[in-house]
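hey
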C-alpha cells in the first residue's frame, strides 16, 4: 500500500490539522456529507467536527476569507468537497502557508447566486482559484486557460482541473504547484 492509499478518519484529520482547519467546535448548522449530517450524535460526541455554514450575503461558503482568497469548485456529491479532496486542498494550502481561515471555499454546484458580481461584492477577492469549473459558467468576463495565471481588475485568477484529477496525476500536481508558488510567493 502506498501513501496515496491511506484513508484517514475525520477524527484523526481534526487532530492532525487542528491549526489549519477553520473550527474545532460545532456551531451553526451541520454541513458536509449527507450521511454525516443525518447522524448528529457523531458531531455532538466530537467524533466528527464540521464547520458551520457562513453567510455574508447569499453565497454559502466554507472558511473565513481572511485573506480574500476564493476557491471555486464544482462538486455535485458533497456540500463543498469530499473528504479526500478536502484533505488534498488543506495540504496544498499548508504548502502555500495559508489555511482554511484565509479562504472562502465555494461550491458553484450548490450555490445559485455564484456569479462574478456577487462573488466580488460578497468576498472582495484578491485571488480566485477555479478547480473543475469554468470561469465563464459563473459569468467571469475573462477566458482563463488551465494553469495560466491571469490578472484582471486587480485580481489574480488560476483555472485548473478538479482536485480529484490533480491528486491522481503527478504532472497535474507539478503544474499546479508551479502556479501556486508564483501566486503565493513560496
Amino acid at each position: 500500500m502506498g501513501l496515496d492509499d491511506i484513508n484517514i478518519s475525520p477524527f484523526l484529520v481534526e487532530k492532525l490539522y487542528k491549526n489549519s482547519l477553520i473550527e474545532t467546535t460545532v456551531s451553526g448548522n451541520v454541513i458536509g456529507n449527507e450521511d454525516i449530517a443525518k447522524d448528529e450524535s457523531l458531531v455532538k460526541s466530537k467524533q466528527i467536527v464540521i464547520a458551520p455554514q457562513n453567510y455574508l450575503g447569499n453565497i454559502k461558503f466554507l472558511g473565513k476569507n481572511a485573506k480574500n482568497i476564493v476557491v471555486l469548485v464544482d462538486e455535485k456529491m458533497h456540500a463543498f468537497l469530499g473528504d479526500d479532496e478536502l484533505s488534498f486542498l488543506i495540504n496544498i494550502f499548508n504548502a502555500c502557508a495559508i489555511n482554511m481561515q484565509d479562504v472562502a471555499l465555494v461550491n458553484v454546484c450548490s450555490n445559485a447566486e455564484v456569479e462574478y458580481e456577487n462573488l466580488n461584492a460578497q468576498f472582495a477577492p484578491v485571488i480566485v482559484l477555479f478547480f473543475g469549473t469554468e470561469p465563464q459558467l459563473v459569468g467571469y468576463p475573462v477566458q482563463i486557460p488551465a494553469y495560466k495565471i491571469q490578472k484582471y481588475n486587480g485580481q489574480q485568477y488560476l483555472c485548473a482541473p478538479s482536485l480529484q484529477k490533480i491528486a491522481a496525476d503527478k504532472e497535474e500536481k507539478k503544474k499546479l504547484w508551479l502556479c501556486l508558488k508564483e501566486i503565493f510567493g513560496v
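Residues 22-56 have pLDDT under 50 and may be disordered. The beta strands are 54-55, 60-63, 69-73, 103-107, 127-131, 150-152, 155-160.
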